[in-house]
Amino acid sequence: MALPSLTVSSATGQLTGQGLDGCYRDGRRILSRCEVRAAGGEPLVVQGRLISADRARFTGVVRRTGERGPDPEIRMDRLRSADGTERITFHSSAARPLRLPVEIHLGTDLAELGAVAVGRPGPELRAAVHGSGLRWSGPGAHAVVTADPAPQDALASAGLLRWELHLPPGGRRTIELRPRLDHDTGTPPTPVSRATPAPGPRTASRRRGGRGDRPPRSWSAARLECDDPRADILLAQSLDDLHGLLTRDPALPTDVFVAGGFPWRCGLAPADALWTARMLLPLGTRLAAATLRTLARTQLATPGADFGRIPGPLRDAGPHAPPGCTGIEATLLFPAVLAEARRWGLPDRETERLLPTAERCLHWLRTATDRPAAGRGGYLPDPASDGPYRCETQAHAHRAAVLGADLLDACQAPGAAALRDWAADLRARFRADFWLDDRAGGRPAALLTAAGRPVPHLGATAAHLLDTGLLGGAAHAPGLLDAARTDQLCRLLRAPALDSGWGLRGLGANESGYNPFGHRGGAVRVHETAVAAAGLAAAGHEAAAGALTRGILDAAESFGHRLPEMYAGEQRTAGGVPVPHPAACRPAAVAAAGAVQILIALAGLRPDVPAGTVTVRPLGTAPLGAMQLTGLTIAEQPFAVRISRLGMGMVEEAADGLHLRS
Asked: pTM for the complete prediction?
């Protein structure tokens, strides 16, 4: 994947036209079938693997009639890029010249990705010979495949290209296929060209303009060296997947964001994009700034009840609640991410540029909670004005108010005192209305109904109630829960009912409506587990934070270090492996960014660049052993830290003038 291009196939490398198989460009399937036959049969593929997020290699052997012995004389290598460009190379180990007939069957339906994903592709189109390849025409677009060398025979009605290759002893021959999509009208979305690694943010390309130009580097080239080598692989694979999901904003191609994931959210998913940018702040503030600018252009600016809100679609919330609004979550995340990015070193000019949008988000927050129609004044309803009132929404609102007040003060803008008073009032009422006491120590309600009745089920979303300061928040900011209730929530999160051994379930296993494959009813979501691990560490429950980190690392290994967005919340057993959810995005932005964050959070970094300080407080339990993180970015300068097996941190590189604290 290298959006807006992606290619899907099985491990054989053959594109069969079944399911999601195909090469896609700008959301359109330009090839649904690309099947190679050699010597009258299909090559036997012995290995298919990703080399990087945007390249895959398939290795096979070709058996010919009359071969003696068990050893094949011809090897086939298929090297495929995300845009569908493919080099098919046949290697001969024979001591004599060979003639190898090769056929490639091609086809497409030019269907939209959304239609293919839900099982409603169009009929396969009839091809026509075009230059050294084939061409298909559909509504508003044409797909063309050119071949080098040109085929010796082409049968358009069957989508068939034929070659007779002559292989000298020990020699090789290559066929290259290049598909492309031609639009009848309009301009296709501008793609992101992947940037090559650079030694630091100052060397990033700053070119502006048209198609194919490299965007500025969106994050630094971080590296991890750990006693557990799986962590090194997971960090590298996750960053590679995030590069594959990097997408330009068509409204302003110089701004980029990370798409939600394949296949369901290949475009802008506001809440996911902000969570991704937030969790990648230790790698620099460029992605956060570009994502915030992109979302600022979508903010509703028409006077009325929705003034200041960022729009977003509804999202399933499990068996006990109606769908929630991702736009509300994004609106509350906007000022929080801007405030945290400033602490990591976002330049003042960028902060001032984005401040008006953050102020409008905070204005919407106060208006939505003070509105008489909201029922229980002071709580934020989600998704409609009549509720319900979700605990995680109140947590996002509280964090937006606290960090937003700090932001307003820093920028000498009015309204900070009123926001702090509102947050203090929310804390007092939340602890009375949302906390359900019982003999086991109590638990937070998942939500209040419009009538004020608490719904008591417990799931992973409760982790948002913890102080996630390891993500870059203010260490001194008061939490929505007091110390005693925070400790009780930490005990609930580490209990087997929620912790599956692979991560936190979306709904506790002993709750009514639990389903291990439930989107929000029992499946493990990497993003929420990463938030929980950071919150547990900040609350002093380091052993529990380490256990969640190891669980995610173990799960990642079984998925080839490309974590799906969610997987079944079945209890871990000896020798068992996690089961992917059939509707999960993979790769997924919040899963990949969550993996990055859960690893970097082990270093316990809390920067405050405007104050000129950075606190390094690693987990004393050192759950993955000794580790060294290089290529991080604080104050737009490289930052590196080493953690010993005893949990002691030592900064090896930092910006001049940055005071270190422990």
From this structure: 0.89
